[in-house]
Write a structure and sequence with these properties.
CATH superfamily: Nucleotidyltransferases  domain 2
Mean pLDDT: 93
CATH topology: Four Helix Bundle (Hemerythrin (Met), subunit A)
Number of strands: 2
Low-confidence stretches: none
Strand order of the largest sheet: 1-2
CATH class: Mainly Alpha
Number of domains: 1
Order of helices and strands: HEHHEHHH
Shape: globular
Oligomer: single chain
Distance between the termini: 34 Å
Helix content: over 70%
Largest sheet: 2 strands, antiparallel
Radius of gyration: 15 Å
Strand content: under 5%
Length: 149
């Protein structure tokens, strides 16, 4: 996997565009992220994590986080589209003060999620646990950053 480019590179390539803030769309993404996170918690409590559902937790954990990152982009007046849009949003994590380690983990998660969706890759419970721990660490931080404005 290639290294994650800087946010400015995505801007210069036109993958990230400056526009007017879209607070309505951001609010929608935040609400969807909250609902998805609550649903994951319910499933984890009621059904639990197993080899049969590990991929589901991985996919949805990524979606929870990327929706919050994209919401912050929209609040700040940015939009991402086209090939590389998810990578561009992830690179924005650095601008938000997240560590390089967190940005790399999120980018790896993006890559593995694509493997699940498009190539039938199967992940085990151990990786799903790492992802759920990552979600539990980043989710409240992202929520605080979004509501600082």
């Amino acid at each position: 996997m290639r290294p994650l480019k800087n946010f400015e590179e995505f801007v210069s390539e036109g993958i990230i565009n400056k526009r007017h803030p879209d607070l309505a769309r951001a609010k929608s993404l935040i609400e969807e992220s909250e609902k998805r996170k609550e649903f994951l918690n319910e499933i984890l409590i009621k059904i639990g994590l197993s080899e049969n559902n590990a991929n589901y937790f991985i996919e949805n954990s990524y979606d929870v986080l990327i929706e919050l990152i994209r919401a912050k982009l929209l609040i700040e007046g940015f939009s991402s589209s086209g090939k590389g849009a998810h990578e561009a949003a992830i690179s924005y994590m650095r601008k938000l003060g997240f560590s390089e380690k967190n940005a790399r983990f999120m980018n790896d998660l993006r890559y593995f999620r694509n493997g699940i969706l498009y190539y039938g890759k199967i992940f085990d419970v151990d990786y799903a646990k790492k992802v759920l721990n990552f979600l539990d660490e980043l989710y409240p931080k992202l929520k605080r950053i979004i509501h600082l404005k």
